[in-house]
Amino acid sequence: MNLPTTRVDAPTAQAEHLLQAAGYSAALVRELTSGDRDRLLSHFLALDEDDRLLRFGQIVPDHVIENYVRMIDFARDTVFGVFDSQLQLVGVGHLAYAPAEGDKRTAEFGVSVLESARGQGIGSKLFERAAIRSRNTHVSTLYVHCLSRNTTMMHIARKAGMKIEYAHGEADAYLTLPPADQSSILAEMLQEQAAVFDYAMKRQARQASKLIESFMPPGIAA
Ligand SMILES: CC(C)(COP(=O)(O)OP(=O)(O)OC[C@H]1O[C@@H](n2cnc3c(N)ncnc32)[C@H](O)[C@@H]1OP(=O)(O)O)[C@@H](O)C(=O)NCCC(=O)NCCS
Question: Are the CB atoms for 97 and 107 separated by under 8 Å?
Answer without folding.
Answer: yes
